[in-house]
């Protein structure tokens, strides 16, 4: 009987938690918090691997075409 009661309590807590999260989110799946002042977005950024230098339209770079190799901490590119 104790196992049943503990299992029921855990299930009720899980269902309640999920219900709370669903009720506090908007239709797009995000939270209802106010947007961050100065927040910007960019659309139609490339996602291709390229060779050579890349110039980004924003600082810091937030997306776009990029080198296929990871950058190491000493700024060398690992191929």
Order of helices and strands: HEE
- Report the biggest beta sheet as strand number plus sense, adding barrel if it closes: 2 strands, antiparallel
- As a percent range, the share of strand residues is 5-15%
Q: Give the beta-strand count.
A: 2
Written overview of the protein:
This protein has 79 residues and is mainly α. The chain is 28% helix and 5% strand. The chain contains one helix and two strands; from the N terminus they run H-E-E. The chain has one helix at 2-23, and strands spanning 70-71, 77-78. Strands 1-2 form a two-stranded antiparallel sheet. It is elongated and about 70 Å long.
Quick recap of the structure?
Helix content is 28%, strand content 5%. With 79 residues, the protein is mostly helical.
Topology (SSEs and partners):
Layout lengths: L1 H22 L46 E2 L5 E2 L1
Antiparallel strand pairs: 1-2
Task: From the structure above, extract its key features.
mainly alpha, elongated, 79 residues, two-stranded antiparallel ribbon, 1 helix, single chain
């Amino acid at each position: 009987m104790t196992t049943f009661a503990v299992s029921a309590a855990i299930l009720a807590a899980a269902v309640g938690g999920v219900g709370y999260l669903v009720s506090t989110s908007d239709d797009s799946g995000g939270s209802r918090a106010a947007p961050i002042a100065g927040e910007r977005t960019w659309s139609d950024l490339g996602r291709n691997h390229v060779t050579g230098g890349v110039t980004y339209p924003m600082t810091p770079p937030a997306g776009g075409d990029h080198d296929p190799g990871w950058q190491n901490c000493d700024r060398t590119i690992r191929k």
